[in-house]
Design a protein that fits this description.
By secondary structure, the protein is mainly alpha-helical. It has a domain of about 110 residues: Tetratricopeptide repeat domain (Serine Threonine Protein Phosphatase 5, Tetratricopeptide repeat), CATH 1.25.40.10. It has 16 helices and no strands. Helix 7 packs antiparallel against helix 8. The longest helix is centred in the first third of the chain and has 14 residues.
């Protein structure tokens, strides 16, 4: 008992605001995390890491303008901060500032040539411009640096789908899922590919897995409803469209209205 009390007291003194901020961020408690990182900023002689992580939390909450301010401050304290450049690029992309976002990704790679996240995001930017072969080249580079990078496999699969390399895409989705079995977006993406291939039962399985990993996933409910309609499972499809609408996927309303008129 005394040992447990001692360990608890020891932990309370050794866990810093920075570490508490990190713990809350890992649990998705971004607002709490920010409060601890702000304490760390006040108390640390070099708060670059705290500013950077605070920016990541603000970005996760959708406040990209404030996140950019944090990344700027991080770089004031640490000039060659590759992660801060890469993260600022992500927030700039979210705000539609594609040109300066690319500059930040390239700066991150200049500082740290093996920066897989910056490579990934250059690839994502290329894919958004429909330059899928160039995007795949960037994803390949990211995977050379970080072979177990589930998100790189996912985005490479999306570009392969765009280039009609459907077998290659299926292979990449399989690798992404092996690395992260809880990624709802990957199951949803692969489900859409199964829809395109008219493999409706496989599509339903993937959308169901996406829903299990993210229960209020309106998009996955909608897509599963579409697959069920193809198999003439109208009543079950109707339930999925209702759930999709309930969870904020407004496009489901159009389908619901057409089904009610049928």
């Amino acid at each position: 008992m005394i040992k447990k009390v001692f360990l608890a007291l020891f932990r309370s003194f050794t866990i810093t605001p920075f570490h508490k901020g990190y713990e809350h961020a890992q649990k998705g408690n971004y607002e709490k995390s920010i409060t601890f990182y702000e304490k760390a900023i006040k108390n640390y002689p070099n708060p670059a890491g705290a500013y950077n992580n605070c920016g990541v939390c603000r970005a996760a909450l959708g406040n990209h303008a404030a996140a950019i301010e944090d990344y700027n401050k991080a770089m004031e304290h640490k000039k060659k901060y590759a992660d801060a450049y890469s993260n600022r690029g992500i927030s700039k992309m979210a705000l539609g500032e594609t040109a300066t976002a690319l500059e930040d990704y390239l700066k991150a790679i200049e500082i740290a040539p093996k920066h897989a996240v910056a490579r990934l995001n250059i690839g994502v930017q290329k894919a958004l411009q429909q330059l899928h072969q160039e995007a795949i080249t960037e994803f390949n580079t990211a995977l050379k640096v970080k072979p177990k990078y589930a998100n790189a496999y996912r985005h490479r699969a999306l570009s392969k789908v765009a280039l009609k390399d459907l077998d290659g895409a299926l292979s990449d989705y399989k690798k992404a899922i092996k690395l992260n079995k809880n990624a709802a977006e990957v199951f949803n993406d692969r489900g859409l590919l199964h829809l395109e291939l008219k493999a409706y039962k496989k599509a339903i399985k993937d959308f169901t897995k996406a829903i299990r990993n993210q229960q209020k996933n309106g998009l996955a409910y909608y897509n599963r409803g579409i697959a069920k309609l193809q198999l003439k499972r109208s009543k079950s499809a109707l339930r999925d469209f209702k759930r999709a609408h309930k969870y904020g996927f407004t496009k489901a309303q159009v389908v619901l209205e057409s089904l009610n008129q049928a």
